[in-house]
Amino acid sequence: MTYTTGAVGRACARASTTKEHPLLAVRARAYRLAAVALAAAALPAAALPAAALPGTAPTALGTDAAGHGRPAAVAPAATGASDDPVDYAVAVDESASLGAGELDREKDAVAAIAVSDPSPRSRMVVFGFADARTATQSPVDEVCPMRQLDTVGREQIAECAGQLRERTPQGGSGTDFISAVRQGVTRLKEAPDSGRPRVLFLLTDGYLDVKDSYRYRGLDDRTRDEQANEDLTRALREAADAKVQIRPLGFGRAVDRKRLDEMAAGGYRNGCRDLPQTRPQAEVVDAENLGRALETAFAAARCLYRDPGSRTRPPGDLSVRVSPLATEGTIVVSKGDPLVTATYYDPEGHKVDPGDGAGDGESSFEFTGRGKPVESLRITRPLAGTWRVHLDAPAGHRDRTASISVLWQGAVRSDIRLEKPSPSAGERTRVEVEVLTRAGVKLDERDLHGITVSGQLTGKGFTQKVPITLADDGRGQDEHGLDGVFSGTVTVPRDATGDLLFSSTVESVGLRPDTRSYPTGIAPLNAKFGAVLDIPAATVHPGGRVTGTLKVSNKDTAAHTVRLAVADAEGTGLSVDPAEVPVEPGAARTLDVTVRVADADGLGAPVDDDGTALGGKVTAADGTRVLDDAPLSITVTAVPSLPRRIWDAWWQLIVPGAFVLVAVVAALLSRRRVKRLRLAPGGLLLELLDADGTPVCSRKAKTGRGNRYEFDLVDAATDNPRIERRDRGTYAVRRDLAGGVVLRAGGQGERTLRLGEQLALTGTLSLRIADGRGRRPVTGRRGGPSAGGRSRTPGRATARAGASAATDHTGSYAASAPEQEHPDI
Questions:
Q1: d(C-alpha 185, C-alpha 124), whole Å
Q2: How high is the mean pLDDT in each 10-residue block of the chain (825 residues)?
Q3: Distances from the Cα of 615 to the Cα of 53, 70, 254, angstroms
Q4: Is there a contact between 592 and 642 (Cβ–Cβ < 8 Å)?
Q5: How far is CA 128 from CA 54, 227, 390, 445, in A?
Q6: How many alpha carbons fall within 13 Å on the CB side of residue 735?
Q7: Cβ of 118: how many Cβ atoms within 10 Å?
Q8: Which of 204, 261, 274, 740 is surrounded by the most beta carbons within 10 Å?
Q9: Is 122 exposed, middle or buried (0-12, 13-18, 19+ CB in 10 A)?
Q10: Residue 517 is inside which H or E element, if any?
């Protein structure tokens, strides 16, 4: 984390463009670091980002009854998968009129149903149908006997559906709906009526055609058609009596839509829920969309919400969105070719592998149909957002268009609120119902699509239920459209005499219905007793509490008792204390009200670091009359680790202390660095002198191992004595803090010398160490080879040596023109 304040930032910018001496640069960097650290330590807590502060978990915002922002409560998601089984029969047209590839699409559609059903206890039978021209032929081919859709059964259905065949004209080219319906009803009736739904899907490309059927042989056309129609009507009646829904699906140009509608209406009409879109109805599509249409019919029969995704040919990516309302869902990928491979990625980009059956602690996964033309990924508690599936395929297997869809079911919890908690008879009051979801995700228009909220008012003194029209369209009494808050008004009947019950129901395809009630009573005229509740929004850990206030005023001559309760928060582990507050006549006071949060085991929803928001409200009632209510907005976060608790309690001291510590460490490191630089031998000039004091060779020292310059005296007894750099040499030199140098000479230990001081090394040679900045090293002597490889005559060498010897032997040499330093050997 970087803090840049004006002066400090500008100083650093200027320093970065300034060429400094190494020693000064180190000091400057240390001073700047210390300045930044101290400046940051002095910053007020308000300057720190919110993420660094304790108790700042993010919350989704909704609106309260007055239109003001407040954290939106979140309903805990349902735990575990739905286990409501369904029995299916799938009748697939095998007539000779099928177009190219249409039978393959029917097979894929059948496999999609098998891998999409959420219950492992569901059962399924698959058969083909056409007609029978001879007594030895059968109008139906049962390729998949009734079997349970457990892990093995799903795979088997996909395999045996591949046995569906296209009939030849000699094998029966007609379309015998009668036999198809009866076969489906017979198989579905074999199991006792346990209350589980029975559904027959009928896939066909044509119309009722039995002109060549052996059953109607010898009849003229009119008689045959009349008899066939009577037989079909009887078969549909049998389906209705057996509670078998018939969901016809036609494709192609020769489909008899009217006949399909009659079959959908003739079977059992009650769907999985009393919603128009879940009732059996016929559908006619082109063959290319057959799979998607059957999935839609399956979803309606199962009360699942289906969301189609993209299409592409492999290699490529498919994508589909999973709603935050979903508590469990199945992503279905229709590849059309078993050699196409699919790789799944969640909305955060994490790859989901078949080995991830245990999930990530939040979600769990189950793959079905891998290596088949249709496969699926079933997810419990799926991560909301856009899921991506990458497709790949070998050459020669990339011509089929693949598609993706998701079928999900979810759970919502709603909260009903009244503008006037205790309205009077004949008074009009505003009603709000907020749809709550998990994980604090705000619903958008796509999530709210299809959700309906209905309400009604019942009570004493009137017998007719009063409907309440609620909408989320931003019109009339609804202040904000598509915000998840459905609003409307209702007038309390004038003949109401006592208790009132406001109720609401939220429902949609894919969602379990959620019904909420608001019991209250008629407010007496000129009421002398009242109460006002205030519960603030808060973030707590499991087992924590939130404290609010209750203001009461009793101007009556009799005592009253306020009863407090948590409403619309079943399964959230919330309770309120005190439960009752007695108020004496003439009393007016304010007291604390505590909302207690259960421990982690009693919350009914998993808790993580991001927090689980709990909703509902606290009501204050006088008998059956609600005096006031206060919406709850409590976010529960997991108990932090010990380091996090220490941080939360002491961060205001830890932050400045850390910066001060950094500054101190930086200063100590800088001081050590400065000391090393002051001791480094780099730049010292080592001169080898003969008996006359004439320089015969010199070397400029560089910093080496251990911050020393180590060397040896080479060829000391010859005419060309030299100083050569060597690791672990006999001699070593470094500076000292007093401005001199420290020389180690063999086994004689260390000796401190002044710059320019001369020290005898042998009987004829001595060493002098001077400040060599801007000085030329002497690399050879008379007659000897120089480091540069040039020969020097004795006269020239002597002349140069004499010129050098004429200088000040204390080390104060006259500056000469700089030349490239001779490299150390």
A1: 12
A2: 33 36 44 42 38 33 33 35 80 82 86 88 94 90 93 88 85 88 95 87 90 90 94 96 95 88 94 85 88 90 92 96 91 93 94 68 84 91 93 93 93 88 92 76 78 95 95 89 92 93 93 91 79 91 92 90 87 88 92 90 70 83 87 84 80 88 89 79 86 86 82 86 87 86 82 86 86 63 41 39 38 36 39
A3: 24, 11, 55
A4: no
A5: 65, 23, 34, 42
A6: 21
A7: 22
A8: 204
A9: buried
A10: strand 511-521
Which backbone phi and psi does 513 adopt, to 5 degrees? -60, 145
CA of 216: how far to CAs of 85, 126, 238, in Å?
A: 39, 26, 21
State the CB neighbour count (10 A cutoff) for residue 233. Answer: 13
Amino acid at 723: I
DSSP class of residue 426 equals T
CA atoms within 13 A on the CB side of 490: 28
Tell me how long the chain is.
Answer: 825
Q: Quick one: residue 81, left, alpha or beta (phi over 0 = left, psi -120 to 50 = alpha)?
A: beta
Please provide the DSSP assignment of 288-339 as one string.
Answer: GGHHHHHHHHHHHHHT-EEEEEEEEPSSEEEEEEE-TTEEEEEEEEE-SSTT
DSSP state of 471: B
**Are the CB atoms for 773 and 780 separated by under 8 Å?**
no
- As a whole number of Å, the end-to-end CA separation of the chain is 47
For residue 664, give the 3-state DSSP assignment: helix
Q: Determine whether 424 is exposed, middle or buried from the number of CB atoms within 10 Å of its CB (0-12, 13-18, 19+).
A: middle
- pLDDT for position 25: 46
Dist CA 50 CA 58 (whole Å) = 10
pLDDT confidence of residue 438: 55
How far CA 507 is from CA of 273, 303, 409, 435, in Å, comes to 10, 11, 12, 10
Q: What distance separates the 2 farthest-apart alpha carbons in the chain?
A: 145
Q: Using alpha carbons, select from 567, 574, 512 the residue that is nearest to residue 543.
A: 574
Q: According to the model, what pLDDT value does residue 605 have? A: 67
* Nearest-angstrom CA–CA distance, 568 and 631: 10
* Ramachandran assignment for 147, one of left (phi > 0), alpha (psi -120 to 50 degrees), beta (any other): beta
Of 627, 572, 622, which Cα lies nearest the Cα of 601? 572
CB 85 within 8 A of CB 122: yes
Peptide bond between residue 578 and the one before it cis (omega within 30 degrees of 0) = yes
Residue 296: both structure tokens together: 């839609």
- Distance CA(721)–CA(740), nearest Å, equals 25
Sheet strands side by side (includes 684-689): 695-700, 684-689, 766-771, 758-760
Nearest to 531 by CA among 657, 623, 614: 623
Token digits of residue 585: 């006549």
Whether residue 215 contacts residue 227, with contact meaning beta carbons closer than 8 Å, is answered with no
Q: How far from 253 is each of 99, 205, 206, 265, CA to CA, in Å?
A: 11, 8, 8, 22
> How far is the C-alpha of 546 from the C-alpha of 538, rounded, in Å?
7
Residue pair 239/180 in contact by the 8 Å Cβ criterion:
no
Output b/e per residue, 208-220; b: 16+ Cβ within 10 A: bbbeebebbeebe
Tokens of 94: 């095998």
Q: What is the DSSP letter of 400?
A: S
By C-alpha distance, which of 383, 173, 184 is closest to 267?
184
Backbone angles phi, psi at 451, to 5 degrees: -80, 130
**Of 614, 567, 638, which is closest to residue 436 (Cα–Cα)?**
614
Confidence at residue 670, expressed as pLDDT on a 0 to 100 scale = 83
The tokens describing 664, both together, are 């101190």
Lookup: tokens for 758: 């001369």
Tokens, residue 76: 């805990």
DSSP secondary structure, 347-380, as one string: TTS-EE-TT-TTTTSS-EEEEE-TTSSEEEEEEE
Dig out the tokens for 497 from the structure: 């005499």
